[in-house]
Amino acid sequence: MRVVIAGAGLAGLSCAKYLADAGHTPVVYEARDVLGGKVAAWKDKDGDWYETGLHIFFGAYPNMLQLFGELGIEERLQWKSHSMIFNQPNEPGTYSRFDFPDLPAPLNGVAAILSNNDMLTWPEKIAFGIGLVPAMLRGQNYVEDCDNYSWTDWLKLHNIPERVNDEVFIAMSKALNFIGPDEISSTVLLTALNRFLQEKNGSKMAFLDGAPPERLCQPIVDHIKGFGGEVHLNRPLRKINLNEDGTVKNFSIANDKGQSAIDIEADAYVSALPVDPFKLLIPEQWKDLDIFKRLDGLKGVPVINIHLWFDRKLTDIDHLLFSRSKLLSVYADMSITCKEYADPDKSMLELVFAPAKDWIGRSDEDIIDATMEELKKLFPMHLIGDNQAKLIKYKVVKTPLSVYKAVPGCQSFRPSQKTPISNFFLTGDYTMQRYLASMEGAVLSGKLCAGEVHKNHKEGVK
Ligand SMILES: Cc1cc2nc3c(=O)[nH]c(=O)nc-3n(C[C@H](O)[C@H](O)[C@H](O)COP(=O)(O)OP(=O)(O)OC[C@H]3O[C@@H](n4cnc5c(N)ncnc54)[C@H](O)[C@@H]3O)c2cc1C
Q: Where are the alpha helices (DSSP H) in 183-281?
């Protein structure tokens, strides 16, 4: 069966890969000249990479890890020590660590939390531990029910002091969805905490050893092509054309010059677009269908990814860091954490700037000035006083509509991969799967979508 897929982010590529494995012929059309969507990256004129986002892989990503295994590229994941490291705003230039010992879950997580005395007091740890009991015992059903509450409301409901937010969860919610705990759905935090506490290596982190388009997306493309599939860049989906019965007749895809479009026919059609551009392409005839109407409740959140090249090493930490800065979220010195970006003498900090709502429209210069002010608190020894480190160059990548904003109530807006249109399917991290807006969620949604397309085909053949 020939399946046309629009979008070559991780969801579209994963869908194509699993369709190819099942004996079908996927043909992927991507709008841009680069693979990967939100994991896309580019090289500057000096040959240095810059990325859409700083990306971390977790031990709690079973489908992603399986994909690496199936592609034979597991060694490209650079696993770091099992720790979470936070900057300490009250003691600039210092860190507080949660170190997970080599014990079964949840003992390793409990030991990591109990042995950290910098951030939470004992009464706070106890109140928080008691609050988590229902999530641990009742599992995902409880976690889904909590989608009615913001994380701050959930903490209040469980009499957990507000200070726990200030110390730990502002940083975590910014890292997970680029927004603060007053806005984020408690389902997001509880899902992450459940995975981190219930799986021994759930919170263990890895960096890819290079740029995602080359080191992760290209091997998926090679696999797809090896099975007779195709992947085309610079070919945006312009229009979904329908038959009289409302099924898809063809996808109108721009030609590679971008001037005119060609109608491409297939046995099944998949949108792997992010939710915002997909909404603009929903045909008039489908607009009253509940599954598509509910998409109005989903909208991408703005985020900014910043790259700073310095003339010297600012740190020797080979890990992700939670900045706990007002403007910044997580960051890493990629000259240490990522093999292909390695530099023995100079640092390249990659930082996520979030929440970015008030900054996405500002100039790169304003954003860099504000970032450098924040960095003085993180690296006072290098950025204040005599003999300061020099910023050699920078690159700012803005994504005004990134992953869907996971606010309370939005779980019910997320669509299934199967739609009421018999030959049309959806994939993308925003479609329903348990890993929310993440690379794991995108890969899983692609796999689920491929499964639905295959099932539909089998049922049609019977
Ligand atoms: C700054 C940042 C940091 C992140 N950090 C992490 C992290 O540490 N860990 C993690 O797990 N996740 C992280 N994520 C989230 C992760 O990147 C996404 O969840 C995932 O990559 C989404 O994949 P997707 O395929 O669903 O969507 P996308 O990657 O958005 O792919 C959609 C594709 O569709 C294409 N497209 C759009 N319109 C058309 C059209 N008309 N025709 C054809 N193609 C079209 C786009 O160009 C794109 O290639 C981060 C995201 C960002 C932005």
A: 186-198, 212, 218-226, 275-281
